[in-house]
Specification:
single chain; 391 residues; mainly alpha; four-stranded mixed beta sheet; 16 helices; 5% strand
Length: 391
């Protein structure tokens, strides 16, 4: 459809007229009828907009921020919605909106959003001054009160103590005393462990009882981590109390199960993430970059299978007796170590062709790691900037 010069005589059919705008060097086109939905704005008022008509360029020319103008056009196209690019400051965004006479529309939009949020709060029937809300804020927001700050510090101390107990009890001297049931050692470790578990249990139950939405609470993986940290203690306590009634065979199986449960106690260290904004931001950015990470792992997996298979047949053909590459699984382990740039040296190719394949594998691993990393880092930076101000 031909562009209609607004200053030319006979400019008719405004319903189908396409407006061409040059903003900061970027070309934008939109139907005039879309702009005229908001006649009080600069773009929606033809008389105001005609002041920016450029006869040489045959389009409207505005020397404004090109990226923000995309948000301005989105306002017209979405019939009243706003979005601010994360790389644009609030002050700069407000300045551009004021130029396009959209400040009042933006303020009305923000009031509408605030009213909708208030309606959700009212519909949830949660009184912000009730004891449940106060307890929830006590656990959830350490800065809500001095008592909440003290509790948060105590939580960090309890987590650190629990992790320290988990580490110290693996020392040979301590293990020997625990096996011999040294009364002092057993009492110290059991008491410290019990106090930490009571602390974790009270916190978890308190947050679960007072949370505004149980379904959201149960979908939060951090709450499940909190549950896993206390589960081994209670299972071990119940199992040991019933140990006398079990047969020798069942006791052996029970001991193996307890070993697995004790390993689960290591996840207590993840509870510290609740008190670290940096860890929260990193977790959110990694979650947002899951597609890029999956792409990286996919190429890495393909490389492991290809080079593991090639290396197996090359080394077996060269010397099937002395080679360390006994199967494709063994070769795949070598490929994993090589492509991850770890290089244990436990398996090395002996033949000249095998060394050539190993060199190609190293070069390939650097390429497949380097290419997606640039995309991941770029997205990581954007998401980090987005969440840094929110948390």
């Amino acid at each position: 459809m031909a562009l209609i010069d607004p200053t030319a005589p006979g400019a008719t059919d405004p319903q189908n007229e396409i407006v061409k705008l040059n903003v900061g060097g970027g070309i934008f086109e939109i139907y005039r009828r879309t702009l005229e939905r908001y006649p009080d704005t600069l773009l929606g008022n033809k008389e105001k907009l005609d002041n920016y008509w450029n006869h040489d360029l045959k389009c409207y020319f505005l020397e404004r921020h090109k990226l923000i103008f995309s948000s301005v056009l989105y306002f017209y196209q979405s019939n009243g919605l706003f979005y601010r690019p994360t790389c644009i400051s609030q002050a700069q965004f407000q300045e551009e909106l004021e130029f396009f006479n959209l400040k009042s529309e933006f303020e009305a939009y923000m009031i509408k959003i605030e009213n909708e949020l208030n309606k959700k709060v009212v519909c949830s029937h949660v009184d912000p001054f009730s004891w449940r809300s106060r307890v929830w804020n006590f656990f959830k927001e350490p800065k809500s009160s001095v008592a909440a700050q003290i509790w948060a510090i105590a939580d960090v101390v309890a987590i650190s103590t629990a992790v320290l107990i988990f580490i110290i009890e693996t020392m040979p001297v301590i293990q020997e005393e625990l096996r011999n049931e040294n009364r002092i050692t057993v009492t110290i470790f059991f008491t410290a462990e019990t106090v930490c578990i009571i602390f974790f249990t009270v916190e978890l139950l308190g947050r679960f009882i007072c949370c505004p939405d149980k379904s959201i609470f149960l979908r939060n993986i951090m709450n499940w981590i909190d549950f896993i940290t206390i589960l081994p203690y209670f299972i071990q306590l119940i199992t040991e109390s019933a140990e006398e009634t079990l047969s020798a065979n069942k006791k052996n199986n029970n001991t193996q199960a307890l070993v697995i449960l004790r390993v689960l106690r290591v996840v207590r260290i993840l509870k510290l993430a609740r008190h670290s904004k940096g860890i929260i931001i990193v977790t959110k950015t990694l979650t947002s970059s899951i597609n890029e990470l999956a792409l990286l792992l996919f190429f890495w997996f393909i490389g492991v299978i290809i080079f593991g298979s090639i290396m197996y047949y090359v080394e077996v053909s060269a010397d099937s007796e002395k080679t360390d590459f006994k199967s494709i699984l063994h070769s795949s382990w070598w490929a994993v170590v090589t492509m991850s740039t770890v290089g244990y040296g436990d398996m090395v190719p002996q033949s000249a062709v095998g060394k050539l394949i190993a060199s190609i594998c190293m070069m390939f691993s650097m390429i497949i790691i380097a290419l997606p990393v640039t995309v991941i880092v770029s997205k990581f930076t954007r998401v980090y900037a987005k969440y840094k101000d929110k948390i």
